[in-house]
Design a protein that fits this description.
Helix content: 25-40%
Structural class: alpha/beta
Oligomer: single chain
Number of strands: 16
CATH topology: Rossmann fold
Order of helices and strands: HEEEEHHEHEHEEEHEEEHHHEEEHHE
CATH architecture: 3-Layer(aba) Sandwich
Shape: globular
Distance between the termini: 50 Å
CATH class: Alpha Beta
């Protein structure tokens, strides 16, 4: 790595940290230069296509309707790009030479996850461009969560389904030369390394999160899935009532080459979790919006998700995501929606916008009903 690059990125990280009062000092080490056209948030900064289809999910059985999902993916991509055909829409982002990582979210699996029917539709469209199965990767950090979904039953044989930490806590799947170093609370291991496939194999990444609240960050959406899902040793940012999620999510998402390679955001909102996330401990906390969002701007999509989760919590009589009262914080493991485990940091979305990762306001939303 060139010393001048190291100093450049370290200085940039320090500048980012100063955007929030009292933020930790982040040291970013990467050999990858910033892209002139980063995947986040361009080319559709501040724009979101949001589709609702009532038949896409059956709330009683929680089963997705594959034909409806395929129609949503087709319409969403065509509306986002303005392309006349589905193939042309996907060709705006990918070609037959690409090696594509599909970052799913399985932390709530098998109850809630990036829906297999959604992932299957994405894989089919990539293969239609001539990308071979061997160059497609469905990936997540933890094997138990990933394996519980059985994506192999929904995609052609030959598509790679990869758990980064096999076994758990193994660093073999991470790049030792690309990391963020930060000391939050005197922990012995202060380094978070980027997934090695991101730095060494993928040419493009599709981010496929789902709608969930998060006890520390407020919500877990595009930003948190791409950030915490592509680095090791991230849970240390929220070990006590006051967390560092406000700045850590954006700091990780902004690291190259992750930022440059993440070219498409597909928010799976067929199911949602309004309390207890990022897991799904009880069905009573799940709801079924039957929607999907498409864009290249993770901040814009997460802003819409934040408003949706906040409205659902209000409807259910739960604490606001913005409640910062210490009297409402418990270190216990209970599931009372009137009690928080942490001081939530929904501001991590707006903060990420200040890092240049997207547009928090105003957002241009195209709403479609199928």
């Amino acid at each position: 790595m060139h010393r001048r690059n190291f100093l450049h990125f370290a200085a940039a990280a320090a500048a980012h940290a100063r955007l929030a009062a009292g933020a930790p000092a982040y040291k970013v080490v990467t050999r990858f230069a910033p892209s002139a056209e980063p995947g986040m948030p361009r080319p559709y900064a501040g724009q979101v296509v949001r589709l609702h289809c009532a038949r896409s999910i059956d709330p009683a059985s929680e089963r997705a309707d594959a034909p409806a999902v395929r129609e949503m993916v087709s319409r969403g991509m065509r509306s986002l790009t303005g392309a006349k055909t589905e193939r042309d829409a996907w060709a705006r982002f990918f070609n037959a030479r690409d090696v594509v990582g599909i970052k799913v979210n399985c932390s709530g699996a098998p109850e809630i996850m990036s829906t297999p029917e959604v992932v299957s539709a994405i894989v089919a469209n990539l293969m239609a461009l001539g990308i071979p199965e061997k160059n497609l990767y469905i990936y997540e950090r933890f094997p138990d969560q990933l394996n519980s979904v059985h994506y192999d039953r929904y995609v052609p044989a030959g598509v790679n389904i990869v758990a980064i930490e096999s076994p758990r806590n193994s660093l073999a799947g991470y790049d030792p030369k690309t990391y963020v170093d930060v000391n939050f609370s005197g922990e012995s291991d202060t380094r978070s390394n980027m997934v090695g496939l991101v730095t060494g194999r993928f040419t493009k990444i599709i981010n496929v999160p789902n709608l969930k609240d998060h006890g520390a960050a407020g919500v877990t959406g595009c930003l948190k899935n791409i950030a915490y899902g592509n680095f090791s040793n991230v849970a240390r940012s929220h070990t006590g009532p006051l967390t560092s999620t406000l700045t850590f999510v954006g700091a990780l998402a902004a690291v190259e080459p992750l930022r440059a390679k993440t070219v498409l955001q597909v928010m799976d909102g067929l199911r949602g979790v309004w309390h207890g996330g990022p897991f799904s401990p009880e069905r009573r906390f799940r709801f079924y919006p039957g929607q999907m969002m498409f864009g290249t701007d993770p901040v814009a999509i997460d802003r819409l998700e934040l408003d949706m989760i906040e409205a659902k919590r209000k409807e259910q009589g739960a604490l606001s995501l913005y409640d910062r009262s210490m009297r409402n914080v418990s270190n216990g493991k209970g599931l009372d929606p009137r009690v928080n485990h942490f001081i939530r940091e929904p501001g991590h979305i707006e903060y990420a916008g200040k890092l240049g990762l997207g547009v928090f306001d105003p957002i241009r939303v195209t709403d479609l009903e199928l």
